[in-house]
Amino acid sequence: MAPQNPNPNPRDFLLHLESYLSKRDGVDKLLKISRYASKIILSSSVMSDSSTLSLRLKSFESSVGVSRKAFRLGKFVQDVNAFRSSNVSTKEELILSILAYGGEGIYYFVEQFVWLGKAGLIDKKNLSVLQKISAWCEFIGYIGSVSLKVKELRQVGEDEECLKSTIEVSTIRGIGYDEEMEKLRKLRLKKMMKRLSVVQDFADGLMALADIRDGKGVLSAPLLLSSAGLLSALISTHKNWISC
């Protein structure tokens, strides 16, 4: 039997890009990157607020913000399905799952009406209330999400230590451990992605908190929030890229 090629040909970039852009989240995160990159420029005093480029960036950022909300149509369904398929073994995990998936699901559901209001299809008189409800649900969702991911990271850490012990024993006994090494590699990759996901949730949670507080407080500085938004977008783009 011919040996397997340990370095298979990398995936064609354009085909990968096509697959990425065919997904709702792929396009949404590219829009998010462009929006928060614009907000960073606007909030860093690089240019005058009255300059032509500054006014164009403000208009662009605002338009992209409204456009992104359209990508949330029906997105709450994924949280319903995620909750249905979640492996809950304790009451604590059940509560955290309800917070995570319920909070995010309601957030996406309410955001549909926020978009319709901003698009002018429904009356805007209740828009501020809807946005406040949306922000609270999003923030609660991140609390649950971060808590679940921290628990998962602990479990991954325990599994990693177990595998490392198995490899050490195999080394002493002089037996093969290729399968364990591959499992360890995948486990470490999973741990890295989970950590990035926690950082992303913290960044998004910070922006949700700023929305709840109507942009008041030290943690609501425009440059800080814009940087958090860009960081979140880059992490999400990376996760979506390697998963598609």
From TrEMBL:
<dbReference type="Pfam" id="PF05648">
    <property type="entry name" value="PEX11"/>
</dbReference>
<keyword id="KW-0576">Peroxisome</keyword>
<dbReference type="GO" id="GO:0005778">
    <property type="term" value="C:peroxisomal membrane"/>
</dbReference>
<dbReference type="GO" id="GO:0016559">
    <property type="term" value="P:peroxisome fission"/>
</dbReference>
<protein>
    <submittedName>
        <fullName>Peroxisomal membrane protein 11-3</fullName>
    </submittedName>
</protein>
<dbReference type="GO" id="GO:0044375">
    <property type="term" value="P:regulation of peroxisome size"/>
</dbReference>
<comment type="similarity">
    <text>Belongs to the peroxin-11 family.</text>
</comment>
<keyword id="KW-0472">Membrane</keyword>
<comment type="function">
    <text>Involved in peroxisomal proliferation. Promotes peroxisomal duplication, aggregation or elongation without fission.</text>
</comment>
<keyword id="KW-0962">Peroxisome biogenesis</keyword>
<dbReference type="GO" id="GO:0042802">
    <property type="term" value="F:identical protein binding"/>
</dbReference>
<dbReference type="InterPro" id="IPR008733">
    <property type="entry name" value="PEX11"/>
</dbReference>
<comment type="subunit">
    <text>Homooligomer. Interacts with ARC5 and FIS1B on peroxisomes.</text>
</comment>
